[in-house]
Write a structure and sequence with these properties.
Aspartate Aminotransferase, domain 1; 14 strands; 2 domains; Aspartate Aminotransferase, domain 2; homodimer; seven-stranded mixed β-sheet; 17% strand; alpha/beta; five-stranded mixed β-sheet
Amino acid sequence: MAIQQKLSLMIPGPTPVPEKVLQALSKHPIGHRSKDFQDLVEVTTKNLKWLHQTKNDVITITGSGTAAMEAGIISTLSKGDKVVCGENGKFGERWVKIAREYGLEVITIKAEWGSPLNPKNFKKILEEDKQKQIKAVILTHSETSTGVINDLKTISSHIQEHSKALSIVDCVTSLGACNVPVDDWGLDIVASGSQKGYMIPPGLSFVSVSEKAWEAAKKSCLPKFYLNLKSYKKSLASNSNPYTPAVNLVFALDESLKMMKEEGLENIFARHNRHKLAVSSAIKALNLKLFADEEHLSPSITAIETGEIDAEEFRKTIKNKFDILLAGGQDHLKGKIFRVGHLGYINDRDIITVITAISNALLEQNKISTQEVGEALFAASKHLNIN
Amino acid sequence: MAIQQKLSLMIPGPTPVPEKVLQALSKHPIGHRSKDFQDLVEVTTKNLKWLHQTKNDVITITGSGTAAMEAGIISTLSKGDKVVCGENGKFGERWVKIAREYGLEVITIKAEWGSPLNPKNFKKILEEDKQKQIKAVILTHSETSTGVINDLKTISSHIQEHSKALSIVDCVTSLGACNVPVDDWGLDIVASGSQKGYMIPPGLSFVSVSEKAWEAAKKSCLPKFYLNLKSYKKSLASNSNPYTPAVNLVFALDESLKMMKEEGLENIFARHNRHKLAVSSAIKALNLKLFADEEHLSPSITAIETGEIDAEEFRKTIKNKFDILLAGGQDHLKGKIFRVGHLGYINDRDIITVITAISNALLEQNKISTQEVGEALFAASKHLNIN
């Protein structure tokens, strides 16, 4: 196992972790029922609200982003409830599966993988629901499997017009990467995960919950225990947890939220946007094709079609020669695309480096000329602060 | 927040973490879909089987011990199933709550808090179930809230005689502290947690699952997603995980399991037994009362009645003066007992130190004489290797 090697993570999570955060992680644990830990929960909760731009409760769960989304769904809905699910990638598909597993009546709004969900489709279904039978709209903001960002702001405005339905949103690879103003957009349930924009290792996930969602939770009758958000709310009143939390990951969270506050939301979003533009413009200069609709590129991840080149072989080359880990395609996209994560603790140097690595691998395979390599780097640098 | 202070954890979890394990925790994360991580899952799974003394699958979940128990229950049972729950403490009560939440028909076998469950009560109910309607027996091995260990070996033998019912056992504070030979005792589902005998911080939990339990899982129709053990089994076939696991805690697990193998199961069990005997004999010499039945003391935790002394004040004194964190009583026992955790990374010195601290606090309050302090230390040392 070469787990000690100098590997650069450019996958959509786990993302690179700052030294300071790793050091926080390796502190001796403290009792999770102690005053010291309550103080820590108080601070991290306050800073989580800052990150979410919300006055809503933000709950920390020990588990993955999937656990957080499941918690949001099962804590607010009941068997037979009608829900609308957006589905334009692997994660959209997963929320449909969860909804069906719990006996919800699911209406799907689909788009091709690589294309965004059309907000008008949501508007239409919600407007037609005169009886107000739709209890929730479930969707993914940044679809990690394809690198597409859905127009959550507009879709959320349609949900608000409906007034009865809750929004339950997977913001796992958007929160902490681009603007997700929970209160401004009126988002009811927002789920995210630690190993993404948060810059800490996997193991924690987060759920912001609006007053409207808590009202719905009172009537929810799906069976649940560990993932029952109501238990977390009750404990949060005393800055505590219903079940033993991953204490050391909370140390790390505290440190990373402080770093994020130091950088500032606007700067964080601008950095991710810069990196998105740098990668996508370089990719085009290299004659590769962006998998996602160019008008709807995720700030966190860029999916790239490799045409006749086997994407898995290409990833291996980049890993072996440059110690950069890229993500592959999932399901039917395996071997057809690779994905560059530019999420979390990533700087301009990382972006220039990954573009150089991709260029070099293409050059070695005689797919491009040195001229194009230069153009790709120039195109990228125009978006970066190195310019 | 004094989270950097030199605090010694003698609570039933989080337990102290060895330096080597803390260092493993602070490594840069790796991709959870990488070959390196698969290699790590292969090794830790093999060593988890060693620890469980089993050929069964042992699954690692990112979540608390409660998540692991819930996973065991909801992955193998269906709505309306009849189950028998042992209930003689806070955790026993919790498994009853989970079973009822999911619509199981629960028959409880109770004992007073501080007393063990009577195996004969299980034998009787199981023998009377001629129609074999009981689908599972759910119980806690070491009841953390009271310091009682239940006679799992005998109870399990009665479940085996019944032949149809599964055993679903909370071994959260017994596994890695005393003998839990999963195959020898024929245990179907065994749940445990990282922040206990495993000597790593909280965030991971473990479930060992027998073939008989996997058979039952095929018929289980309770709704579940994140805690569906079948998804973990499928992924485990390729040393993978269905959802993003807490990668850094797995680094820590790898290290701690290696340490446990180096010490050896017999030595680990003997150490915990030694510490149990040292603490309980000192407590008696100090004229305090053991809360749990003396014949059924948990190897991991000793609960102590404080009589007219406020147990919470007593804990505070020990914390402030000696930097030793003890656990309080839960629910109706708050203020009436305190609990000394001697679980995981604890050595003879820690035991002598905590006895000294308790003695000193009692002496200062004029509750005992110097003669009794000496007797307590002498009584304890007879059981320790320092003798």
